[in-house]
Amino acid sequence: MKLPGKIHPAVMDTRRDFYKGKMSRREFLRFATLLGVSVPAAQVLIGCGGEETPVVEKQAAAVRRGGTLKVGSAVQRIDHPARISWVEGANQLRQVAEYLTETGPDNLTRPWLLERWEADEEIKTWTLYLRRGIRFNNGDELTADDVIFNFNQWLNPDVGSSVLGLMSYLNRNNVEKVDAYTVRLHLDAPQIAVPEHLFHYPALIMHRGFEGDFIKQPIGTGPFKLVEYTETERVILGRREGYWRTDGAGNPLPYLDELIYLDLEQDTRVAAMQSGQIDTTFQPRPPDWLALKDVPGLTIRPVSTAQTFVLRMRVDLAPWNDARVRQALKLCQDRREILRLAYFGQGDLGMDAHVAPVHPAYCERPIPEYNPEKARALLAEAGYADGLKVTLTTKNDMAEPEIAQALKEMAAPGGIEIELDIVEPSNYWERWTEVDLGITTWTHRPLGTMVLALAYTADKDGNPVPWNETRWIDAELNVLLREAERTLDVEARRGVMCRIEEIMQDRGPIGISFWRKVWNITRSEFKNVRAHPTSYDLFYDVWKDA
Predict the structure, then answer these.
(1) DSSP sequence for 10-71
(2) 100-153: per-residue pLDDT in tens?
(3) What predicted TM-score, i.e. pTM, was given to this entire model?
(4) CA distance readout (Å), 407 to 37, 342, 414
(5) In terms of C-beta distances under 8 Å and separation of at least 24 residues, what long-range contacts does 210-219 make, across chains too?
(6) Taking a C-beta distance cutoff of 8 angstroms, is the pair 105, 530 a contact?
(7) Between 63 and which of 59, 228, 230, 489 could a Cys-Cys bridge form, CB atoms 3.0 to 4.6 Å apart?
(8) How many C-beta atoms surround the C-beta of residue 468 within 10 A?
(9) In 3-state terms, what secondary structure has residue 98?
(10) What angle do CA 451, 454, 457 make, to 5 degrees?
(11) Cα atoms found within 13 Å of the Cα of residue 28, Cβ hemisphere only
């Protein structure tokens, strides 16, 4: 295996750390690939051979073509992909449009529409090299103009994309076209995670002529074409002829003829799986897992994640503008019992900081104990000696009702009387950033810094970024976050994350009782199915053995 001529010097420094036993093979591969080294080359650097686990697996001669895969999922209103705030919608659109990179189930980030990327020594200048010859489904070739158009959309405050908060280190005026297939990003501050940010699920690459409504202009580079999109009913996607990617033997992809997403209420999906109405379902709940895990003909694929249910408080509204009140509510979580009641113990305990044990720089801290007496004392100190009455709003499609009911009972001894407002998912997502007290599902991100940038920072004018549902902006945390984002050494970054986690525990606006495990449950005749920690549907090389 020939090594690339140019390797970022930090990769060689990290290689020495690997040989000293300071990091695992997976951590080294992750670090090296983010800085532009291919997986095979990174493996050679540490003597692990040069065989990459390819994005598209080499197929045996027995692969069959044709067939339909049916998915139970929500089918919600879609307009501009950059504004998507739920994974279901992204899963449906990602079959038609694609991303510049892909962070796979193994948590390694690889080029997708990009051929490769390079970062300078300061990791402030990133050069992105597009694959050549990729065409949109309208026949136009993908070029740098399309990429620049999308950056301008993502970074335009008027569009309202969460990418704006994630990429706050980049001004849209600093996206440079080098040539027809090369784009250079000049960052305002160093950032290690640019390749992973390019796989943030609203960052789908649209045609440069896109006018803002995907249903009217379903133009993408992906393996399927949009046939029908009927909100609250179904999505039908048909196999696209002339898709640019092939399998390991040079055969055209995709294998399946059709994908159908059916809008089914969560409570009906188990029966739909058992009856054969659907072949897989988006994010099965623990009761669904229990009901289906021993059913013949189904394959269960579990994965640990940074997905979680966030108890969040709007700090711009009383009483949540007082850190003592926020702390009191967090002390009313019996985390072990909430995990048992809501998720059958299938997860890892949380400690009210939005950094998970699966993140590379996670700083392990003691899990706070349930303490209603201290909660009541904090409320009295904050001026609520007679307690509080509050309304908790959340949705009813996953474990939120069980968490909410458990919290209601646990908070009462702490002086907090909770009235529950449990609504349909569409109702919640229409106002999720507006309710004063809620439980919001947040999906997996491969780095702890990513969700912190998305949910707990401000824009250049000092206003909360689009997904900052709590309106919490902490000056010290934001300085530390920028430090973490430019710190290449994982152990040094962990030291920064320790302080970030401490700040979130002491004065932050959220409670996280546990991080959940997720399962991919699919009929066994479908091959090449992979469980992704973000519950992404990657169907480009899935085939049906029937």
Answers:
(1) HHHHHHHHHHTTSS-HHHHHHHHHHTT--HHHHHHHTTS-S----SS----TT-----EEEE
(2) 999 988 888 999 999 999 999 999 999 999 999 999 999 999 999 999 999 999
(3) 0.82
(4) 47, 11, 11
(5) 210/149, 210/153, 212/79, 212/80, 213/79, 213/80, 214/78, 214/79, 214/80, 214/81, 214/93, 214/97, 215/78, 215/79, 218/96, 218/137, 219/97, 219/136, 219/137, 219/138
(6) yes
(7) 59
(8) 21
(9) strand
(10) 115
(11) 24
Closest by CA position to 415, among listed 446, 443, 378, 388:
388
Can you state the angle between helices 25-34 and 9-19, rounded to 10 degrees?
180
Q: Exposed, middle or buried by CB within 10 Å (0-12, 13-18, 19+), for 251?
A: exposed
Q: What is the pLDDT of residue 546?
A: 73
According to the model, what pLDDT value does residue 41 have? Answer: 80
Q: Report helix, strand or coil for 356.
A: coil
CA distance 470 to 511: 12
How does pLDDT run across 352-397, given as a tens digit for each residue?
Answer: 999 999 998 999 999 999 999 999 999 999 999 999 999 999 999 8
- Residue position matching structure tokens 């004065």: 507
Helices marked H in 248-389: 269-275, 286-292, 323-331, 335-343, 372-381
The phi, psi pair for 92, rounded to 5°, reads -75, -40
Average pLDDT over the chain, rounded to an integer? 92
Q: How far apart are CA 215 and CA 227, in angstroms?
A: 10
Beta strands at 416-423 and 388-395: parallel, antiparallel or unpaired: parallel
Residue tagged 């966030």 (tokens): 310
Region of residue 336 (phi > 0: left; psi between -120 and 50: alpha; otherwise: beta): alpha
C-alpha torsion 339→356→312→333, nearest 10:
30
Tokens of 143: 């070029």
pLDDT, position 4? 52
Q: Chain-centre distance of CA 487, in angstroms?
A: 22
Reported residue count of the chain is 546
* Sign, CA torsion 85/86/87/89: negative
